[in-house]
What does this fold into?
Amino acid sequence: MKAHYDMLIVGGGVIGLSIAYQLSKLGSSVAVFERNRLGCEASSAAAGILGAQAEIDEEGPLLDLAIQSRSMFPSIVEELKEKTNIDVELIKEGLLKVATTEEEAQVLQRKASCHQRWDENVKWLEAKEAQAIEKGLADNIHGAISIPGDGQLAPEKLTQAFAQGALYHHTKIYEYCNVYSLITEKNKVKGIHTSSGTFYGGAVILTTGSWGKELLPNADHLEVFPVKGECVSVRSDKNLLKKTIFLDEGFYLVPKAGGRIVIGATKISHDYTKTVSAKAIQALLEKATRLLPSLSEAEFEKAWAGLRPQTNDGWPYLGPHPTVEGLHMAFGHYRNGILLSAVTGKIIAEAVCESKQNHSFFDSFHFMRTMEGIR
Ligand code: FAD
Ligand code: GLY
It folds into this structure.
């Protein structure tokens, strides 16, 4: 068995696989180590919203990163389709961020004017205008922000497409392979100890999601923890919805191919279980039918839960480790890992492979930021 690669990636979620795809495309020999099956954690539980403006209101580096990533999807999904034949079902119908009370309407109108400063396509819609666009919306809504740029896709298919794309460029993938520890010598990373033996590499990239802290040296100041999200899906052949519907609190309805609608999601911090409570299903369905009454006639499909990788300050950790040469991080993408996967793959691959270590994004997302009081 080959035991030396240029790059060793720990974690086979959407982030690790996007990085593997970009690195192997640049010509590196790459191996990905996943302790279970590819995409089995957050990456297959996601709703797949590319919600740069729905999810992020504050102007700054995270919004910039999100907008850049969102803009990469049309070409990257084409590129992946050509190489893998996987259609990730990118839907570019836009999103309505709906106000359910007059107070919410005031907050959302202010947010709409902020987004309009740099995106003229964002518009505030009065209730009647929103209902004219989405006919099934309840009568008692109080208006909505229209965000045409926020699309959505099938996250498990995107994860598989990155995996197949990486294989196309000769990445080696080890599933059911647990990484136990890093091998370091004189503050330089040399390899990893795994349940399938020892592997050596010029660089190691940790993309371990909610478990981001486990293998990381000098990480006492860091917090990485799961925020469990429960979802349900229903199916209807009646074309109930075209656009994603989003509430400011983070609740959403996402219309998928084949008449499926994903309804999500709860937020439960520090819970590593993936069980779904009856209470969650009841609350999600109640909220969904209040917004879109015709949903009550749809067929129940399934319920599931996944673990969003959250950090101290809600931003991901991206870039090189400050004291261990050759060690890189890309985890903690919280609610937006599907959205941010495209840009994360590209900037990490360029940094590791082409030594663009001074990528300006890393200043904002680096390992010591909370210690240095930057965030
Ligand atoms: P993960 O997918 O969790 O992958 C990490 C992998 O590392 C896992 O497979 C794990 O088994 C592996 N691993 C960990 N430790 C080791 C080890 N020691 N050895 C080997 N392997 C290891 N994002 C969006 O952009 N849009 C959405 O609409 C959206 N909706 C969401 C809805 C829900 C309910 C949830 C839970 C998340 C949602 N997200 C969404 C967030 C998104 O799913 C995550 O941010 C993203 O999947 C994180 O990807 P990841 O690769 O970092 O983590
Ligand atoms: N971005 C949707 C979620 O995390 O639930």
